[in-house]
């Protein structure tokens, strides 16, 4: 089975917790990102923001009940983050993605520093490749 390190995006784009919702959203749109890790000054993961987290503030602005686009990203980021290590197996991470219903998993070192990110699409692609390789191997045996 493949390790996550082989399919993750290393050194992903990040923002600090005090950047505004508007700035983070613009960066995500400009780069075509659906998930943006939030890190502290030491590069340690403190949260993650998804495009879904930003819909309310950007669509409704100052209207209750959500925060405005001018507020810091830490007002909308998710802090109960599903993370994985670079040595975790793809299949294990796939199961956790399904169980937690998340779209991306930050990859962290033992000290909490962000080292990469993997999306559910990355995981599905690798699992499909492995399944196809297994099917070819079985076909050759017949």
Structure notes:
It is a single chain. With 142 residues, the protein is of the alpha+beta class. The protein is built from four helices and five strands. It has helices spanning 21-31, 51-60, 90-100, 120-141, and strands spanning 9-10, 35-39, 45-50, 104-108, 114-119. The strands form two sheets. It has a three-stranded antiparallel β-sheet. The model has no long low-confidence stretch (mean pLDDT 90).
The helical percent reads 25-40%
What pattern of helices and strands is seen along the backbone?
EHEEHHEEH
The major β-sheet equals: 3 strands, antiparallel
Q: pLDDT under 50 segments (min length 5)?
A: none
Percent of sequence in beta strands: 15-25%
How many strand elements?
A: 5
Could you give the distance between the termini? Answer: 24 Å
Helix/strand/pairing category? alpha+beta
Number of DSSP helical runs: 4
- Widest sheet: strand ordering: 1-5-4
Provide the residue-averaged pLDDT: 90
Cα radius of gyration in angstroms? 17 Å
What's the overall geometry? Answer: elongated
Short characterization:
The protein is of the alpha+beta class and 142 residues long. Helices cover 38% and strands 17% of the residues. The protein is built from 4 helices and 5 strands.
Which labels suit this protein?
142 residues; alpha+beta; 4 helices; elongated
List the helices and strands and how they pair.
Elements: E1 9-10, H1 21-31, E2 35-39, E3 45-50, H2 51-60, H3 90-100, E4 104-108, E5 114-119, H4 120-141
Antiparallel strand pairs: 1-5, 2-3, 4-5
């Amino acid at each position: 089975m493949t390790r996550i390190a082989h399919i993750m995006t290393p050194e992903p784009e990040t923002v600090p917790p005090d950047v505004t919702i508007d700035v983070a959203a613009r960066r995500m749109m400009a780069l075509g990102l659906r998930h943006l890790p939030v890190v502290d000054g030491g590069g340690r993961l403190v949260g993650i923001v998804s495009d879904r987290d930003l819909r309310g503030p950007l669509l409704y602005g100052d209207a209750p009940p959500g925060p405005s686009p001018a507020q810091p990203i830490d007002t909308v980021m998710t802090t109960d983050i599903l993370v994985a290590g670079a040595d975790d197996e793809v299949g294990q991470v796939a199961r956790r993605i399904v169980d937690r219903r998340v779209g991306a998993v930050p990859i962290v070192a033992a000290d909490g520093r962000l080292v990469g990110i993997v999306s559910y699409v990355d995981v599905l692609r690798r699992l499909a490749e492995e399944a196809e390789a297994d099917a070819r191997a079985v076909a050759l045996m017949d």
